[in-house]
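BUG: 3D viewer hangs when loading the predicted structure for this chain

Environment: internal workstation, default settings.
Expected: structure renders.
Actual: progress bar stalls at 90%.

Input used:
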Amino acid sequence: MNLVRFFLDNRTQILDLTLEHLWLVAWSTMFAMLIGIPLGILIAHRKKLNKPVLVTANIIQTIPSLALFGFLLPVPWLGDRAERLAILALTLYALLPIIRGTYSGILGVDPAVVEAGRGMGLTESQVLFRVELPLAISVILSGVRVAVVISVGLATIAAAIGAGGLGEFIFRGLAMVDNRLILAGAIPAAVLALLADFGVGWVERRLKPR
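Structure tokens produced before the viewer hung:
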């Protein structure tokens, strides 16, 4: 009851920080898709670029989040605005699952279907947009799904550099040894991750080729 009362008394601030959290996740996911999907398509068609791109994305994924924020802080223009820095860091972390999902989805398309498209006189770009992408969309969205869930979790760390979000409650609660504050950040973040997973998963199932 004490926790429920705390949530009710601070509902406005919790809502504001939740919206900030969603803002960070939405922008970073959008940028990661704009970069990751074309890269995944590129390495699926240009096998020589496969290893360099995936290895680079893997290396970024292994860097601890606080360390990455620290590396980016001195960068001109980025370090002036914590939100920019947080969005860039989250975008970098979201790249691997999106690139890998796109790569796997394009490779998973039946070569006979692709050849049939070419045999009908489709150009390479038409084969990509009319054959490969429609058949690979569910696998691509599975990568986006993983990326969104990762971003929701990592966005809590963005509060450490003043970028806002639900992490503010968590860090404040840790500093004050107050479980209510920690849960006020952790519970909404967990709910957002579950909703994102369910929402993108639903779209993924709807678009799955039959």
